[in-house]
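In response to reviewer comment 3 from the previous cycle, which asked for concrete evidence that the modeling workflow produces usable outputs, we include below a single protein chain processed end to end. The sequence was submitted unchanged, and the resulting structure tokens are shown without manual editing.
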Amino acid sequence: MGDCGYVLVVDDDATVSEVVASYLRRSGLRIKLAADGPSALAAARAQLPDLVILDLMLPGFDGFEVYRRLATLGGPPVIMLTARGEESDRILGFELGADDYVTKPFSPRELALRAISVLRRSRRSHEARRLDGADPAASLKVADVELDLARHEATRDGRPLALTGREFDLLAFLLAHPGQAYSRGDLMRLVWGWEYGDQSTVTVHVRRLREKIEADPAAPTLLVTVWGVGYRLDLPVHENHQEG
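The workflow returned the following structure tokens.
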């Protein structure tokens, strides 16, 4: 990479940590190791990492709790690492906002490539926090939901709407391109700059958005599924008429 990124590797298995660190150092990254939650948080407070590779099975408190506490420090990108392969763990990780999820046993080389990919798309996001085709000073609206792009704030019926950063970006992108269907792969690439990864994260974010913006999340009328394709945001009929 052009400049040296700083990666915090959190795993109580010293062998795993050293192997991961070795591969990441070959990619020109600076590495710090932590074996438990408290030491990981202390390291992050001392210097916020550009990326955290976080094992979920940790002594003291688990990786999910570490992730929640990291979020209060500025929320660096996180790749979750675990020996547990249950879908519920992966979905919870994505719901919390993890950038990727790797199940043990894994290829250290693949993990290093994923780490570099997450770092690159994180930097792109910081460098260009604006949406393709949207005026960053504008607001976007659908039904009673309104997004203020400049302030990065969302409201529903005039009341603050709690959206994660990824939920906000996904909704803003779809609002800027109403009526157009996108595959999950398209959304990963166009919204978050992810060239590859687990596409179930898109499904999770769509479901959570529906819970926050739809009158009936089980029967969505705004953020709809296009079978065989992906998802599309439909403006209410009266809004289409007003635009016409």
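The domain at 139-243 is CATH 1.10.10.10 (Arc Repressor Mutant, subunit A). We consider this sufficient to address the reviewer's concern, and the full set will be provided in the supplementary archive.
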